Amino acid sequence: MTRGGSHRKSPLAFFVLIFVLSIPFWVLGPVVERSLPIALPITLPVSALMFVCPGIAASILVYRDCGSDGVRRLWKRAFDYGRTRGWRWYIPMVLLVPAIMVLEYGLMRALGMPVPGPQISVLMVTVFFLAFFLPAICEEVGWQGYACDPLQARWTALGAGLIMGTVWGVWHAVPYFQAGYPPEWAVWQIVTTVGFRVLIVWVYNNAGRSVFSAIVFHDMMNVSEFLYPEYGSAYDPFLTGIITAVVVAVVVLLWGPGTLARYLYAGRGSTDRATDRGG
Fold this sequence. Notes:
Shape: globular
Strand content: under 5%
Helix content: 55-70%
Number of helices: 8
Structural class: mainly alpha
Order of helices and strands: HHHHHHHH
Oligomer: single chain
């Protein structure tokens, strides 16, 4: 295996470095916010700019082991869409999270919960998609491009998703509180985050281990949450977490926890080879 192989990667060092790099954002974020003449939109705190930290952490660790060429290879994976053979995995990549949000909206209406009517335009979807694309790149180059493969090599794909999802969710806790969300909201949002990470690993493995697939999925997460159903005004992480957990359970039952890429009804000898392409 090459020097840049997954056996040289240290997910633990990556996780620790992310939290260390995020401390200035957590400390200085509220100070910066108090000096701003206007409030930021969609209850997004300044500390959310910590989205750069996973990419920076991965770059530091890859540079230590592989030098500048390794860092270039790492960031080149942000546009490795060529790994995804065919179009079918673009469907969950783009539409799964919006479908979860539509289901949540219908459930809220059926339960008689107060929820505004949808006010979503193609223009706003495009604006939000472009706005969240760079943060998704910076995060997924780290989470999927660096940490995922060594974790699933040791703990299975499901284990990797649960581990990364937990770290990912806890990492977001400080911005949640700084944005004014109550503790129970933050807890359920972390649960939702864990479920979404498992789904990202599922898409990633089946899309030829394409980091680009994770970036698009991540981007659509943010677009869906912040537009639902009226700029995130009625987003409920409790319902989202429950629905996402059900989706995760179905995925695990159908594709198996080991790789999340071996469809159980594919027929003898026709297992998905997605996990064998690239690394």
